[in-house]
């Protein structure tokens, strides 16, 4: 027998209007009353309707094709179930996450996905997550664990393995002076990629591998500056922390009078489609976009239906895609 609002109201001892407000996660319901309604829903096996509701995807780098691709794939996984995504570009200097979340929590939002947003930052303010928990709006992180003590599912690419794949590929080509164009300090994925790079180099006998790491912004310009600096240090190969940074690194290397891959090899990270059509086509470590998005979509459907999803981080293996931007060490 289908459970309705009338049944929940009777079980919880409240009005149907109150049940409706709880179901739609509206304000104006006392915590004790909300808990009673939630308990009644669970006891009766009621599942919240999802048709027409929105899932907010918050990201800082909407201009990056990788994040646009992930957001699009999340949308594709949710659309058959009646959920629609709305993109919230919380970029630095623009509308920030707390403003977005505060403005949408009362608009029928079913869930929130933090796509390499505040969940990637050390010391991020947890007020936004606490607001979502208070409204019983589930949220998920992609490519970055939340601050300590914030219980939520997180789905990430294994950044440590990604660095190992890149270093191993270059090492097999004879490169020993391998540098890394990294993202900034305080960014969880960047720190893990640096850790993976340093560990991979150290295990191959390189002392003080940290000296081969140049930290910059996740932009073409950041990659250009890092690439030029690494060439100045004598690097014959560069591992970039994103495909965008790899594009910049190639430009920086060329402006120093060197060729890619004749003088310096470059490996990117993300695996966006455009990398296949660059000059030269970019060797990159591809993130499993389709599997990440599919798992995010599946978990959202579980959460909005009041079913449990394991918290903590689930790691997905990346894949090395070899193209023409890498070659043997010069003189080999």
List the main descriptive attributes of the protein structure presented here.
elongated; 40% helix; six-stranded parallel β-sheet; 12 strands; 332 residues; single chain; alpha/beta; six-stranded mixed β-sheet
Strand share of the residues?
15-25%
Distance between the termini: 74 Å
Strand order of the largest sheet: 2-1-3-4-5-11
Which consecutive residue ranges, at least 5 long each, have pLDDT under 50? none
Tell me what you see in this structure.
The chain is an alpha/beta fold and 332 residues long. It is 40% helix and 17% strand. It has eleven helices and twelve strands. The strands form two sheets. Strands 2-1-3-4-5-11 form a six-stranded parallel β-sheet, sandwiched between helices. A six-stranded mixed β-sheet has the order 7-6-8-9-10-12, sandwiched between helices. The radius of gyration is 23 Å and the shape is elongated. The chain starts with a helix and ends in an 11-residue tail after the last strand.
List the helices and strands and how they pair.
Layout: H1 5-12, H2 16-23, H3 31-44, E1 54-59, H4 65-78, E2 84-89, H5 97-104, E3 109-115, H6 127-134, E4 139-142, E5 153-157, H7 159-172, E6 178-182, H8 188-203, E7 213-215, H9 220-232, E8 237-240, H10 243-255, E9 265-270, E10 283-286, H11 289-304, E11 312-316, E12 319-321
Parallel strand pairs: 1-2, 1-3, 3-4, 4-5, 5-11, 6-7, 6-8, 8-9, 9-10
Antiparallel strand pairs: 10-12
